[in-house]
């Protein structure tokens, strides 16, 4: 019971306000903020009603219900990690292109000054 209360306090007082602030600062799209909010609220539901994990486990066909939740979480985390890595690669390419363009403009500007 104590861990349920502590987890709820942590999520409600720390996670959700930070999520809202990230949305307001345009660090998250409305869809992204909504998805994160749903995940955190789903976490709260599972924390307060742990028997729901059994239903999830039965639906996934695993012997121990928590295993199904762990498997699903690992797959989701690996997928998100892959998406993040792809996005970082795209940003690195954009930075490289912008750096090259700036360098070429600087060279042209120096030529024009001479």
Please, could you describe this protein's structure?
With 114 residues, the chain is an all-alpha fold. Helices cover 89% and strands 0% of the residues.
Shape: elongated
Derived from helix and strand composition plus strand pairing, the structural class reads: mainly alpha
Secondary structure tally: strands: 0
Count of alpha and pi helical runs: 4
Rg calculated over all Cα atoms: 23 Å
Mean pLDDT: 88
How helical, in percent, are the residues?
over 70%
Throw out a few tags for this protein:
0% strand, elongated, 4 helices, 114 residues, single chain, mainly alpha
Give the structure's gist in a few sentences:
The chain is mostly helical.
């Amino acid at each position: 019971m104590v861990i349920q209360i502590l987890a709820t306090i942590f999520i409600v007082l720390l996670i959700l306000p930070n999520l809202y602030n990230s949305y307001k600062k345009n660090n998250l799209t409305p869809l992204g903020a909504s998805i994160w909010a749903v995940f955190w609220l789903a976490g709260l539901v599972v924390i307060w009603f742990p028997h729901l994990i059994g239903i999830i486990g039965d639906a996934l066909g695993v012997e121990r219900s928590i295993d199904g939740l762990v498997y699903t979480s690992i797959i989701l985390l690996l997928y998100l990690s892959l998406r993040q890595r792809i996005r970082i690669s795209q940003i690195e390419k954009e930075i490289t292109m912008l750096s090259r363009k700036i360098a070429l403009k600087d060279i042209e500007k120096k030529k024009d000054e001479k």
